[in-house]
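All the exercises in this workshop are built on plain-text protein records. There is nothing in a record beyond a sequence line and a structure line. A learned vocabulary of local backbone shapes supplies the integers on the structure line. The question running through the whole workshop is how a given chain folds. Here is such a record, shown just as it appears in the course material:

***
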Amino acid sequence: MPLHENQTIGRYAPSPTGYLHLGNLRTALLAWLQVRLASGRFILRMEDLDTPRVRPESEASILADLHWLGLDWDEGPDCGGPQSPYNQSRRAEIYDYYLQRLREAGRAFPCFCSRKDVLLASSAPHGPDGPLYPGTCRNHLGLAVMPARGRDERRPAWRFLVNDRDVSFTDQLLGPQSQNLARDVGDFVIRRADDLFAYQLAVVVDDALMGVTDVVRGSDLLASTARQIVLFDALGFAAPTYWHVPLMCDASGARMAKRDGTFSVAQLRAQGQTAPQIIGGLAHSVGLIDRNEPLTCRDLLDGLTLPEFTARLKNRTKGGSHESSGKESR
């Protein structure tokens, strides 16, 4: 929880599944700036829940890249903190405790449906993440069929039971948002059938326990926000303030992805790019500075106020949610 009342606490939470690209780095820079401009605490957390996709070398490269660029943090996997550990893969017992609380409150239920079952259900409409769960195991049916299904060796996932109501919030950059989870998402998975905890539950528990007040992240996660807000509420926590920032695209207009291996810090360093050149390019690409010029993170911090940071980011966000990573922004 916050060390001081009304203290701003933010975080950057990368997944160590590959090398950070410029889009990842820009989000990290914006998250860091928002917290430092508010004289708050910054947390680095590794979202390594999806262990089959984690690359052993990625965490070390992420730490090295962020340090080289001049970004620092007050709590993290390399320095510890009051809510250690800061790797999600080491926090399973914590997530299990909060899953049990949801089960006891009647807000979580076992589901034996496979993805194919959901896809083939004729009554399942489609939402932003694909076909909506049709409610097959809802209302404790999952508990009733568990012994029989258990004999077939099918392990259940656990889903959060959503209510038919609008979830509304105001994003600091995108303005008022609203989503009806029953209509748009359906009962969503919080623990997978392979026993891995889902992102939605883990991120809520971590943000709550770590006292996070402000979440700065890519606009691709906007659709997850309503789900996380209802989980905060169900667990008795206050939801943080959200800032969904523009995504970064490559020169062809395609969204950057770690699997492409393009525009990584290692690659840019090999091409002779310096940390100030990269920071200046990233700041310019999202409108924080008027000219593309080399700047350190501290130079950028000293040249902005939080209201100016917010206003410039809002202005760029209204102009479009994607920015090219062409030569000008590098």
